[in-house]
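User: Structure please.
Assistant: Input sequence and predicted structure:
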Amino acid sequence: MGIKGIRVIAAVLLSAYFLSMSGCTNLKSGGIDYKNVSKGLIYDESDNSWSTDDDELKKLAEILKSESENLRSKGGVVLLASDEKVIFIGGSDRTETDGKTKRNAYTTYEIGSVTKTFTATAVLQLCERGKLSLDDKLGSYIPEYEKGKDLTLRQIIHMKSGIQREFFSVEEQMDYELFKKYYNDGFSDEELIKALNTHELEFEPGTQSLYSNTGYTLLAMVIEKVTGEKYCDYIKKNIFDVCGMEHSSSMALGDVTSVPEEPPFGYYSFDINGVFPDGYFMCPISGRGAGDIHSCAADMAAFDNALLSGKLINADSMAEMFSLDMGYGCGWQEIAGYENCYGHVGATGSYYTLNMVIKTEEYGNLYLIELSPYIGAGNDVASSMKSLMKGLEL
């Protein structure tokens, strides 16, 4: 049997494990009500957190309560749940945009590149429905992109296409006015593809891995071509509504309820407010599919639970999604240094996000969501994640 065959079998076994660990496909089978996600938890007013009183899970709640303190002090929110129970929610004393509500599991944040997990899910749904195939050539849907016409959707979704990271090169983005226009939806799809056509692929498709926001925006365009719907409308109807994600949006502006924090001094070499007014990301169209979604911790947990329980895609699609060749699957990455842990981080002008699935024998699937309005929160997110992993003895 060849390497490819071994990988396919391994991926199928992995998906079967995930599905078996998550129980039946009823989203509320474990008793979690995502519309009242703190129900049954003990509230600590001193630090605006909610913890389980389950003796077997208290240890995990205590770890996150302590280790997420720095993240929450900067306006972040943390949630840990299993398929059966919510274990911990850590809010912040900082208020939402209304100036009154302390940040909680329903406070909305920009989730940046975690959007890619939703885009990948949508593509795999359309494969199941016979609307497209991962072996289709991109040129069948976007013939205007001549340099990428022979790329397969599989190469793009697995980050092996060779398409550059953004529609404009790093050198081009040194032009501040172009940079500002690009990140404020100043270019049409046609103009973006025309710009992309001026660049060769970075390598022979399939031979290397290169992270590409552009590739996932092209996938969003493919979704629109196939369905005849806007990307945001498809995602709402086929993912948000199915999961009960009432606080999430796609391709929207002005609905984020958290307040961005000032970036660390020197983090950007330009005036961020000149590109992202008030710190909010301003390209929900040109960034669709790659970084446009806004969500909250409760909605993210609902999505993870629905995905892993087979409510959104079937076992074959799950096998493809978690087939991590060169470290990247379909909207999921390996968490370096840990087995059976998969996640994706996201960053926008001001925001930083981690969405993570941890497969354990003792607790089943665990879902860790960390949302921050502070772009410099990477170290805090990593620290609380590592402490949790140590507590799990992983």
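Residues 3-112+230-391 form a domain with the Beta-lactamase fold (CATH 3.40.710.10).
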